[in-house]
Structure formats: C-alpha cells, structure tokens
Amino acid sequence: MRLAGKTALVTGSTKGIGLAIARAFAREGARVVVTSRNASDCAAVAKALSGAVPIAADLARAEEARRLAREAARALGGGVDVLVNNAGQPRVAASEELAEADYRYTLDLNLNAYFVLAQELGRGMLARGSGSIINVTSVNGTLAFPRRLAYCVSKAGANMLTKVLAIEWASSGVRVNAIAPGYIATPFVAELAAKGVLDLGALARRTPIGRLGTPEEIGEAAVFLASDAASFVTGEILTVDGGWSAYGFV
To answer: What is the pTM of this model?
Structure first.
C-alpha cells in the first residue's frame, strides 16, 4: 500500500496508460479521480476501482481543465496529493499539410492542459507543503519522428514544463517529474497496427528488450514517482522504452 491515504487525479484514465496508472494507484491505496471526455466511460471505470470518483471533462478547453481541478479537489476532500497529467492524442500528418487548427488542438490537449492543471492543483500543494505531479510525455519529447510535428512539440514542451516547475516548487515540498514511454501495447497502438499504420513486429525488433511495453509497466513507474520512495526525485524525465532511446541505430 505505497500510496495509502493519498488522493490522486489521473487524466485520460479510462483506457490505455491512464487506466493502468489509475488501477495501480487504487491497488496501492490511493483514492483516485478518473476522467475523460466520456461520462459513461468514467463511471464504468470508477465503479471498478474502490472509492474512485468519476468526473468527465474536455481538457482541450482550459476552462474545463480548471473546472476539473476544482471538482476533483472538492470530491477528494479538499486537495489532490498526486496529479498525473496523461490525457493526450497523437497527430500524424505531413508538416506541410498539418492544419493550424489541428496543431493548436494538439498543443491545447497535450501541453496547455498540463500547465492549467498543474497550476490549479499546484497552488494547493504549495500551501500544504507537499505534493507530486507526474507528466506523461513520450520519447518523442527528445526524439524527432517524421509526420509527428505537433505531437513532438507538445511532448518536448511538457518535458520542459516538468523541469521548470520542479526547480521552482522543490523547496516548498512539491515534486514534479515526467514519464516518457516508448512504444506501449495500448488499444490505440493495436488499432493503428490493424490499419497498417504500425508494424508491431518491426517495433519489437527495434526495441532492445525485444517487445513493446505494457501499460502496467508505466503504471508501476508512476507509483514509484508518486510514492515516498521517490522523495528525493524531482525534475526527472524517466524514460520507460525498453532501451529504444539508448539504441542509436535506426
């Protein structure tokens, strides 16, 4: 029960990595707010997790992110101990054809929502003198992939957001870290493979460990960063990619 007594908000927590993090937090004793745009999905996941609270919100809209922060803090009894910024979307398009509206939407969801929620909930953490923020970024925050302009920019920005907040808030007891996953076997990745967009065999062969990661492995990394075991860890970008980034050969 490494998170016993803690409260947490995990965004994008009805599927994939976010769901795995929410499950891991609940297993370790945290009371969790689960959220996505779909209210029925939120309710179904919350029902399966002991004591979880469902709150639907469209985090591409700043006012919705602020509402989520307020309602989560109220539902959890006045404060959120752990914020996991995970909600996001990829955007695949040739850069010369990428619509400005799509570029802006990706940054609003993948980056601006992270800032808004960190700021809104960070104020309470600073006042209490404790808290942990975990931003789920990507290896694409440091590695450029073609046709991923908006996504790469948003994840690079989230990495820097992590570091700046970490050094500003460390002396007040608030730790800010990021998890940068590589290719993870999520339902979305499986969907892309079914459409022929991704070759899972090639991705596994390119990964030194020889397979894709699992959402549960990201969940374990998040539990560590949220727990007291990581009490001296802040400003860190924890890469969980099976060695993908370390292997320089394409």
So the answer is: 0.97
